[in-house]
Amino acid sequence: MNAAHGPDDGVQTVVHLLRHGEVHNPDSILYGRLPGYRLSERGVAMADLVAAHLAQEDITLVVASPLERAQQTAAPVAAAHGVGVLIDERTIEAANHFQGLRFGHGRGSLTNPANWPHLLNPFRPSWGEPYAVIADRMAAAVAGARNRARGHSAVIVSHQLPIWTLRSRLEGRRLWHDPRQRECGLASLTTLRYDGDLLVEVSYTEPAAALAAQASTTPGA
After folding, report:
1. In a 10 Å sphere around its CB, with 0-12 CB exposed, 13-18 middle and 19+ buried, how is residue 36 labelled?
2. Which CATH number goes with the domain that contains 138?
3. Residue 157 belongs to some domain of the structure
4. Residue 177 falls within a domain, yes or no?
5. Which of 31, 63, 115, 185 is surrounded by the most beta carbons within 10 Å?
6. How many structural domains is the chain composed of?
7. pLDDT at position 6, please?
8. Do the Cβ atoms of 193 and 201 come closer than 8 Å?
9. CA 25 to CA 27: how far, in whole Å?
10. What is the chain's pLDDT, residue by residue, as a tens digit (221 residues)?
11. What is the domain range of residue 53?
12. What long-range pairs does 180-185 form, CB within 8 A, spacing at least 24?
């Protein structure tokens, strides 16, 4: 007996998950969801490089996190394809107890007893938004973008932890992890290729690798 086929079987759709470029953060604050953190000059150059890299793609949808750095990164991609930037709250940075602090220093220090209750469970994690919740909201955002751009390509500009958490789920890995092992550099592309609604490939590229190598990063940015 032949398997049933939906009307969109065979339709190829691509969703690129783009991490924003370098942020201007001279005080090395874990900025999380705080407003006012924009791209640095190098971050703007990274965004332009990604836009050039994607210039020949059939992009019909560009979505971004509501945070300024994501919208700035999305802007040149959207402009190159004559579309606007849609804001999707589901792609925002993960919530984090240490937001606004210099992690490892002062009030953000691991030796500060006030922080210990937030460090008890690295698997959930206890210091921020649960990994499962992050993966769920990102998966919903991707499904929405895939449906809107069906037969074409979409770009979603988000943040390192949300992108990596979703990729871990899609590739069957545990969601808790060592942040130093994330493959999600500044202005990188994690690309999801679909046949209908079936994910057939996950790939990773760094169009701005030369600039990213010069950049300093903040954990969870």
Report:
1. exposed
2. 3.40.50.1240
3. yes
4. yes
5. 63
6. 1
7. 46
8. yes
9. 6
10. 334 444 457 899 999 999 999 999 988 888 989 999 999 999 999 999 999 999 999 999 999 999 999 999 999 999 999 999 999 999 999 988 777 777 655 554 555 656 546 565 666 776 689 999 999 999 999 999 999 999 999 999 999 999 999 999 999 999 888 888 899 999 999 999 999 999 999 999 999 999 988 875 444 45
11. 12-27+38-95+129-212
12. 184/19, 184/160, 185/19, 185/209, 185/212
What pLDDT sits at residue 110? Answer: 58
Q: What is the separation of C-alpha 14 from the centre of its chain, rounded to a whole number of angstroms?
A: 15
> Distance between CA atoms of 190 and 106, rounded to whole angstroms?
35
Residue 195's φ and ψ, nearest 5 degrees, are: -110, 105
Kindly provide the b/e burial profile for residues 177-215, where b requires at least 16 CB atoms within 10 angstroms of the residue's own CB.
beeeebebbbbbbbbbbbebeeeeeeeeebbbeebbeeb
Residue 112 maps to a domain: no
Instruction: Quickly list H helices, the chain.
Output: 41-53, 68-81, 131-148, 160-170, 209-212
